[in-house]
């Protein structure tokens, strides 16, 4: 890998900014000052340091985002803010993308990474990766609805796989419900359409987990953080290089 590309990927700035660092003799390669941006380095073997700080190369990065409403799960869009707009410049250097999507008015857990193999594994229909949602519903959810979910709800364009619907709260006075829904698919507006098929309407939807990853209660809305070592270890179940 070229040295300037390595430094850019490590979040030290644009190519122009990186070249300034090199000219100022602030970059060392294996303990020797290097001023050429074009030299080839082995990112896994050579020791690269900037201002006496050794840089550890990461091929893949993983961010856990607490997505807010009003933001779309895409890398670019002409009309709306995207989840990438919520990241800082350093986090965007690795060209990350969202694993799956949350609707514009759905909030909660979203994984962003540049590991295409992991994203493919987590989204593969064959893997049946469970996704847990908490939904506020306009209408009273009943045990009959629970059975309907377990049997597999038939929508206009497809029949849903069996899903688990758990009633958390029911407010008879306001005619509302709070429920938890577990599905192993990710069709367009699926949770909302399933609830609608029962004659009720989702008024708020939050994703709590996806596979082994759970929404960190300490992670405020609109903020993100790197996955922990423990969370990365849980992702090894997908059998891809992390």
Automatic annotation (TrEMBL):
InterPro entries: PsdUridine_s_RsuA/RluB/E/F_cat, PsdUridine_synth_cat_dom_sf, PsdUridine_synth_RsuA/RluA, PsdUridine_synth_RsuA/RluB/E/F, PsdUridine_synth_RsuA/RluB_CS, RsuA_PseudoU_synthase, S4_RNA-bd, S4_RNA-bd_sf. GO terms for molecular function: RNA binding; rRNA pseudouridine synthase activity. It is an enzyme of class 5 (isomerase). It comes from the Bacteria. One of its GO terms (cellular component) is cytosol. One of its GO terms (biological process) is enzyme-directed rRNA pseudouridine synthesis. Residues 1-66 form the RNA-binding S4 domain. SUPFAM superfamilies: Alpha-L RNA-binding motif, Pseudouridine synthase. Its EC number is 5.4.99.-. It holds the Pfam family S4. Keywords: Isomerase, RNA-binding. PANTHER family: PSEUDOURIDINE SYNTHASE, PSEUDOURIDINE SYNTHASE FAMILY PROTEIN-RELATED. Belongs to the pseudouridine synthase RsuA family. This is Pseudouridine synthase. It comes from Streptococcus viridans.
